[in-house]
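new request in #modeling-help
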Amino acid sequence: MNAPSDHPAPRRWDPPSSFPVHWEDPADAALWWTHETEHASPLVLPCQVAQRQWIGDGMVHAARLYGAPLAGRRGRRINTYWYDAMVPMDVAPEERDRLAREGEALKAERARSLQAWWEERWRPELDRLLDYWAAQDPDALDDGALARWLEHSDAPQRRIWAIHFELVFCLFPTLRAFDEQCRELFGSDSDPITGQELLVGEENATLRGAMALWDVSRQLLEDPAALEALAAPTGAAALAQLQATPAGQRVAAALSEWLAQYGRRPDERREALGANWDEDPSVPLAMLRAYVQATSPHPLEAWQRRRARRDARTAEARQRLTDYPAAVRASFEDLLARARYAARLAEDHNFHLDQKSFYWYRRAVIAAGRRLAARGSLERPEDVVFLTFPAIVAALATGEPAAEVLRAQVAAEKVELDRWADVDPPEHLGTEPPEDAAAAPAPPPHSEGPWQGVPASPGIVRGRARVALSLGDASAAEPGDILVTTTTNPAWSPLFAVLGGLVTTVGSSLSHGAIVAREFGLPAVVAVAGATTHIRTGDWLELDGARGTVTPLNAPAAG
Amino acid sequence: MMSRPHPPVLHWLTDEACQSVGVTGGKSAVLARLATEARVPPGFAIVAGADLSSPGVAAQVRQAYERLGEQVGDDAPRVAVRSSAVAEDGARASFAGQLETRLAVRGAAAVLEAARAVQASSAAARAAAYRQRHAVQDTGGAPPVLVQALIAADASIVAFSVNPVPEAPADAAAMVIHATVGLGESLVSGLVTPDVYTVRRADLRITARRLGDKAVMVVPAPQGGTRTVSVPRSVASELVLTDAQVTDAANLLLRLESLVSQPVDIEAAFWNDALYLLQCRPITTGRAAAGTTHREALS
């Protein structure tokens, strides 16, 4: 920490000329805006603005609950990209300290009894909230009722995201504490045991989904005709082709059962643009294509190997602690159990919260789109995503504005999205607070490699790079490819089963992708700045997940 | 096995003969005497003057070590090997540091080697003390050595039945307990700032609990010996003793005090929630001036 002698002044960030910003509210220029990359898809559609607000409000709700001195938050869609700004609370230092103390205590208490909070409070409440959508067939409502039903879904959505962050904020302190304790206990040993090693192999929904889909793939293998259907260009075509034979019909039935269980998720994280998997099963079909390859291992086998390795390392850790004071052994066991539960929820909360929120929002909005298209207000039901949530509600409730106005809005939005699609949005806008301005800028990444990132999942692998900024790109990955992307994305998790390695440009050893990579025993390096620009699809790489390095290779390595 | 004409070279702590300070040294003699009143780790004292280079003596030590193993149910028990000459010391802080102590020694050969090293260091330290202060009679010969099953301490304490450094009048009526996590060597050698508890003598009420800075702890090493490792923050940030343990220690202090009819200081360890007495010495007003022996205190 280099503390400058004079107090740093706030710094105004002028956006580049390629990204002009007009502040409608002049007060906004004084705030520090951050382009949300972890929680937002690159381009934000008008109908996603409501989601961004729900997510942002949920985050601030939990942050305030746990003592962050925030008055609130503002979110803006600027040039089709999403920016959030925290509004600091104007409080005396003592009051700020009191808030932090009490908030931390509350968070620590919940982290200690995480399982009870999840199983006895959050999860049951979540089930009730999701019932709002599950219990209602939107097509059975008239326009006015559909508008009200949509409008009132605002409340359960908000609460889902409040729960999401109340939960998530409790996970990482536990995972970090365990990681740190393992460093304290084993870090100076000749064979250090890391926290990550002891947390892999927790059962979770992703694994259960992969295993269930593997079973479907075995049925496919029994029928050459059904296998052929997998090669169809679209998910819909593949499903149609499956229906042509009795065996194919059985596979289709098994697949739709699987989709009801594991397919209630959108194609991309936190985004209503991508079709839900049960609308368009392209993703699970891609997984099936990988699974039917002879080289593909059963997901359970790999999981059991990881689990056995983890259990052996856990036994080793306990052995090393045999003669340690009881308080140390008790603390280790307590943190281990809590960290394992936290690790499971770090993955599973996506299944229960994120994906369900997006899934039902997409379904509800598309139902509204069908209605608007049926009366001619939209050209296609899917065009509804180019309208904001309030505009969709109003259009249903009042029939206003007229069809040609709505269609013009949609057309204008498409132009707007095209205009900004290739712009690199600045990471920050507005006015940088003094404490951030004091931090040194990150050094520019080396462009020719090797590149250093954060070790996320151990293992050394060589393979061909697959640079993918969307799940569509990523789906083209072939078994053994090293996926290079910006941020890892729970919707992609099943794809991990066929990858050789993973590189992301952002994230940490505790981010979603790192956790899932460890689950899949997939070597991974995260936070490799510039990886998606320096590396091109087809490049050969060596990835060392323990050292956090990515090294370019000249030619495919033999063996 | 072999019948020996010599007087025994070692006494078990449970033997009455072990209670003679002149034969087994102050530390062993006191523990032997208190073994019926307090939980003392099993072990034996190698008498003063024992010649460990003699095959016959060495054989007896090896046999005793094996017997200790049978007692504690371990083929190769870890033991603590210390000088028992502590009674000669008037000022522990300056003296104890010079005494070799070998902890977590495993195997008969290693025990013999450790006992020889303790004899050597103890003799050297005593000679030095004699030269400095002429306060200790230098009898020459090998000092006594105490060999005890190692207590793999969960928490170790040093405690005084009266406050040795009263800062206020009320302090004198208080017992003081210093505690840390792991083996007591980190406490004795000043590696850590311990947690400090104050207990009012009148009603055994705990009047103060002060969290120390227990950055490191000494733990038995897998291959024998000890190692100093960091204390996980989650453990260091909590008080090492429960109130019940503090009360246990306070009760032990009072019991020992009444046995020796004098205030005492002790070293002790909690292991599996039982409190083991490792050393007990009377606190005498003239102790700092040296010369007061346990023989006087206990006679």
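bot summary: The first strand of chain A starts at residue 11 and ends at 13.
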